[in-house]
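Session log. Operator J.P. requested a structure for one protein chain; no other inputs attached. Running the standard single-chain path with token output.
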Amino acid sequence: MTTALLIIDMQNFFLSMSNPCLQNILRLTTHFQNHSLPRIFTQHGHTAAELHPPFSNQLVRKWGPSGSIAVGTSDWELLPEMKTASSEDGCVTLVGKNTYDAFINTNLEQLLRERAVERVVVCGVMTDCCCDTTARAAFNRGFETWLVDDACGTANQKQHEAGLKGFGYAFGEVVLTEAVLERVQ
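Structure written below.
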């Protein structure tokens, strides 16, 4: 079964949330690279037009322009470790997005279908927002979907556990990094 790794929004804006899961994400990206499996990074951001009234983007309406990530800023940049991982040889793609769901207004589904992907493994930030929403969307599009507990981060442990619990109940497996390394070859 062809499996792809989706690395969600590992950007400077989310640095504090990324620290607990960064090493496991790097282990996963290396494993997928070593097995020549697709690795797709997402990068969340809003254009200048989206950050000025009238706000056309729901997230900008919710969080306001100052709480949103502007494309091209330092906050928008991938973490240095992710820049290195996303530029390595192999099956790496970067998908820009402007909402929690990495499938909306992007070519993510097309990229997965072109690579004959049947399973997606989701990691990154935020567990209970972009990771969970993207993982649910993958499930709803017919992909077997795993959400990696110790390779996801968010604002606090309560939110992390809530995101994992909801996903695990109805959408897919919640797994640990070690299980992914053992099961995906």
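Operator note: The helical segments are 15-18, 22-34, 58-63, 80-87, 108-114, 127-140, 157-170, 177-183.
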